[in-house]
Design brief:
Oligomer: single chain
Helix content: 55-70%
Shape: globular
Order of helices and strands: HHHHHH
Mean pLDDT: 83
Number of helices: 6
């Protein structure tokens, strides 16, 4: 009687890529989906059609939506392609304040404005997500201390092999 032993392929994390090959565009898409699903109210059926009521498992709070927006905005800038809309939105917002209409105001002033808005106001999750996306682009352009969230997000993503 001949028995053969087949060895299973070794499981390994190639090059430290815990999540496999994801890429900045993949993460941008994932974060956009999380924002889209997490900030929407469930659609309730139950009307004349007798459909099931839609339920959501988790809804993003204002803070969660805003920081997910910051992460998404950061990956929009890295991914490029169709994701440049986030950076264009940040540029348009910043130009309102840096264009001279408010005197001499730089990107640091716009960063302070966004940080104050994010800290002192509890926005709806949708508005908080949009504010986070805008803040990511403005903070990246402002540099200095404002570049820390971007550096932390990208370093963390690189550490798990997601970029």
């Amino acid at each position: 009687m001949i028995t053969s032993v087949i060895a299973a392929p070794a499981i390994s994390v190639e090059g430290g890529k815990i999540l496999g090959t994801v890429g900045a565009g993949g993460i941008a898409t994932l974060l956009t989906l999380i924002l889209w699903i997490g900030i929407r109210d469930p659609k309730g059926g139950g009307g004349e059609g007798g459909g099931k009521k839609s339920r959501i498992r988790k809804r993003l709070t204002s803070d969660q939506a805003q920081w997910t927006g910051v992460a998404a905005g950061t990956f929009y800038m890295v991914a490029g392609s169709i994701w440049t809309v986030g950076e264009n939105l940040s540029d348009a917002f910043a130009s309102v304040f840096t264009g001279g209409g408010f005197g001499t105001a730089g990107m640091g002033a716009v960063s302070l404005l966004l940080a104050a808005l994010m800290y002192f106001r509890e926005l709806s999750p949708g508005k908080a997500a949009l504010t986070g996306i805008v803040a990511a682009g403005v903070w990246a352009q402002a540099g200095g201390l404002w570049g820390l969230p971007q550096a932390l997000i990208l370093t963390s993503a690189q550490a798990i092999g997601a970029t």
